[in-house]
Amino acid sequence: MSPARAAGHGDGRTGRRAVRPPTGIVREAPAKLNLTLAVIRQRADRYHALHSVIVPLSLADTISVAPVEASSGRSPGGLDSLAVSGFEVPGGGDNLVLRAIALARAAVATTWPGAPALPPPLAAKLVKRIPVAAGLGGGSSDAACALDAALEAWDATLDFDRAMAVAAALGSDVSFFLAGGTARISGRGEFVDPLPDLVGKQPAVLLVTPAVAVPTREVFQAFSRGAKPVVAEAAQEISERLAADMTAGLPSAALLARAADLACSNDLLLASVAVVPPLLPFRRTLARLLGCPVGQSGSGPTCWALYPSLVAARKAAQVVEQAAADGTLPPIGHGPPFVAVATILRRPVADATIPGAGATMGTGAAKPPKTGTSRTVDAEGGAGSHNVRDAGSTQPFGQSVGQSIEQDGR
């Protein structure tokens, strides 16, 4: 697990200080995939207790932050600013990136090198490649990277427990992304137990996201109203078995062999359909087209299918694109679905064992499709690197470009 930037600079395991690029601090924020998602019960605080095995993907947003001098005029009133490109992000100033920077500032206000003055405002840029409200955790990943990048921009530190507390305050999935790597999550998402990588070549993943937002809050409300699986504990059993097998060392081929079980081990499947009914025929048609099990990540609407190689996943992506173009795949929302090919990311070599506080966090990279091109993204992972169709290769997962370091709504 890669804790947040804590006690020191650069690589907390080696003490090396990386060079800060003139453009500021840059982080890559990977998407996540819920291989399983069991909703155990509703807690007294109205959150739901969960059990889920989550993996990071090579599809990623990019976050960059840079301090703004008061005399520059780039931050009127001394406020943090955010510029967004790519997928539109709703919420304006309430975006998780700005909230993460604000909470990071409050957490280090009395301990950063410039205290008692407050850490200066930051100008942040976000390149959104992960669809919004899609069950891929893009907003939470952005928040984790923004927290990490803000600390580095201010030359500030947080111990791991405090950083994870800030992450939990931002939202349920933020802790997973701040920890980094494949993990089993529990509680409402704030308890993160790292899991070993799959043994062998990491599987490829086809992601198909209908052009409709599925708010997590509404999905959990539908679940609470009764849109639940018939067998209440089936997903939990599959999830716990998967976590145990991964702990013991699960080959990638074995994960692919249990794809059918994984595809039905999401307790929010019926709830997401209750919120957006066309999702059911969409998923069924997609499964027939692909001839393989199709699962759902998180609260949806993103559908996924596992493949042994990127070549196989790319061929499947072409099938989906053609079906969307000729109407075989029923349209949902406004426009064609977002289609992406990615890989499950390995834990960085330096993070293969779980370090203590003082380590730093980095994430992978992917470049967006050019404006006006096909919405199909090819985010390659192999050993953690990725490429996007019509774009060059970029920084490996687990390495920062500069110095090294949701709420589920219910």
Describe this structure in words.
This protein has about 400 residues and is an alpha+beta fold. The protein has one domain (about 25-385): Ribosomal Protein S5, domain 2, CATH 3.30.230. Helix content is about 30%, strand content about 20%. It has eleven helices and twelve strands. Strands 1, 2, 3, 4, 5, 6 and 7 form a seven-stranded mixed sheet that branches. Helix 1 packs parallel to helix 2 and helix 1 (about 95-110) runs antiparallel to helix 3 (about 160-170). The longest helix has 17 residues, at about 310-325. The relative contact order is 0.20.
Write a concise synopsis of the structure shown.
The protein is built from eleven helices and twelve strands. It is of the alpha+beta class and 410 residues long. Residues 1-22, 352-377 and 380-410 have low confidence and may be disordered.
